[in-house]
Design a protein that fits this description.
With 312 residues, this protein is mainly alpha-helical. 78% of the residues lie in helices and 3% in strands.
Length: 312
């Protein structure tokens, strides 16, 4: 009987952001533009870093992988969300839900680890500049990037495994625009305590550890900057950190709201809005923040444009 109940739900209906067809048409155009800017911006960052020798440093290696993760992060959610604006409810098979949930968690977790690695890189660059080449060698950088993707993949597998352990035998309408774990958990007619607590504990642990690393790094960075006698040196040190700090604040602020705070502290509509910010908007903002606020990226962009203009 249990097996029959489980197989009775073969697909979920994502209700999306709005049921109003006019609002849906407007939102479709808006988020199609957001997705296009996301792809264009992040691909441009990757190509710029690869083609600019002056950007072949650990910080921009991390940024290059961050751009790749943002493309995957946005692409795992936005196309399905756009389909939802064109129809009343988007049908997605259970297998598709597993893939979307797993990819979302994988890319999201990887981004958290990459942001922590970037904070450590800034700490070494500012607090121990003489040891930078040895502490942030190519081997160390590759290990940090590899560990970030491995940690993200493992968390994605855990979330997917917990989802597959749930039993669905009734309603299949998900009040969200993608297969997020929390609304899916509400639909299950039977689940064990582990399926409910494990994702929450792991999410809280990852956010706590990565935020602690970032906060500790910036405490030491701030102390080092305050000891600098040169105003120009202070300004340069601050300028290398502002872009990263802006992204960290936006990303972890929204992630904490969704995955760490108690579910009773916010409504489903608030959950949707915050999810749009961290899954759709932030991947678009990251390349813009780094290109507009980072002098090295702007200089590399000018040189690349100058070379291109000379070539033609």
């Amino acid at each position: 009987m249990g097996t029959e109940n489980y197989t009775s739900v073969t697909a979920f209906i994502l209700l999306g952001l709005t049921e109003d067809s006019t609002a849906g048409a407007v939102l479709f155009i808006v988020f199609l533009g957001v997705y296009a800017v996301t792809l264009l911006g992040n691909i441009s960052i990757i190509m710029l870093i690869r083609s600019s020798p002056q950007l072949h440093t650990p910080m921009y290696l991390f940024l290059c992988h961050l751009a790749f993760v943002d493309i995957g992060y946005s692409s795992s959610v936005t196309p399905v969300m756009l389909m939802g604006f064109l129809s009343q409810g988007t049908s997605i098979p259970v297998a598709g839900c597993v893939v979307q949930l797993g990819s979302m968690v994988t890319f999201g977790t990887t981004e958290s680890f990459l942001l922590a690695s970037m904070a450590y890189d800034r700490y070494v660059a500012i607090c121990s500049p003489l040891l930078y080449s040895s502490l942030m060698s190519s081997t160390v950088c590759c290990l940090l990037v590899g560990a970030s993707f491995l940690g993200g993949s493992m968390n994605g597998w855990i979330f997917s495994g917990c989802f597959l352990s749930l039993t669905f035998c009734g309603p299949n309408k998900v009040n969200h625009f993608f297969c997020d774990y929390s609304p899916l958990l509400k639909l299950s007619c039977a689940h064990d305590f582990a399926s409910e607590i494990i994702p929450a504990v792991i999410s809280g642990f990852i956010v706590t550890v990565t935020v602690f690393i970032i906060a500790l790094s910036y405490v030491y960075i701030l102390l080092s900057i305050l000891k600098m006698r040169s105003t120009e040196g202070r300004h340069k040190a601050f300028s290398t950190c502002t872009s990263h700090l802006t992204i960290v604040t936006l990303y972890f602020g929204t992630i904490t709201f969704i995955y760490v705070l108690p579910k009773s502290s916010y409504s489903t509509d608030q959950n949707k809005i915050i999810s749009v910010i961290y899954a759709v908007v932030i991947p678009m903002l990251n390349p813009l923040i780094y290109s507009l606020r980072n002098k090295e990226v702007k200089d590399a962009m000018k040189k690349l444009l100058a070379r291109t203009h000379w070539y033609f």
